[in-house]
Write a structure and sequence with these properties.
Blueprint lengths: L4 E12 L5 E10 L2 E8 L2 E8 L3 E6 L4 E5 L4 E7 L2 E17 L2 E12 L3 E12 L8
Antiparallel strand pairs: 1-2, 1-10, 2-3, 3-4, 4-5, 5-6, 7-8, 8-9, 9-10
Length: 136
């Protein structure tokens, strides 16, 4: 599997989850087997790497994690200033749609452990390949 970067461009990113949508800037890198997207929200840095086989979402900042979404149950360690918790992760939806000069990434998954039970999560990311944050 060749993951050599082909090109990196600045992009505008809109993230919607359980909270209000957030607009930010980031970078998008084409790779022969998919793409990577990097963006910051406040002091937190996020990286999304997508291939046909899996999508990973990594966060560095107040909370640190690396979630892998694929066809099998995976595990992640959620690290916070208050401690660490291990979660099983079950992918419910993992889709990427490219329309002209934008990409929509829809990720739905369930995180579960004995202490917290089950938490359903949904993240909707829209990447505008033609704009920077200032033009949103």
């Amino acid at each position: 599997m060749d993951s050599k970067p082909r090109s990196t461009i600045p992009v505008a990113v809109r993230i919607a989850s359980e909270q209000e949508p957030v607009d930010c800037s980031g970078t998008y890198t084409e790779q022969s087997d998919g793409f990577s997207l990097r963006f910051c929200m406040g002091a937190d840095e996020f990286t999304v790497v997508h291939t046909k086989a899996a999508t990973s979402v990594a966060a560095k900042g107040v909370m640190n994690y690396d979630i892998v979404l694929d066809d099998a149950e995976t595990f992640t360690m959620l690290k916070t200033p208050y401690g660490e918790m291990k979660f099983a992760v079950v992918t419910r939806e993992r889709s990427v749609v490219r329309l002209n000069d934008s990409i929509r990434i829809l990720l739905e998954y369930t995180m579960k452990n004995d202490a917290s039970g089950e938490m359903d999560r949904a993240v909707d990311i829209t990447v505008d390949l033609t704009q920077s944050k200032e033009t949103l």
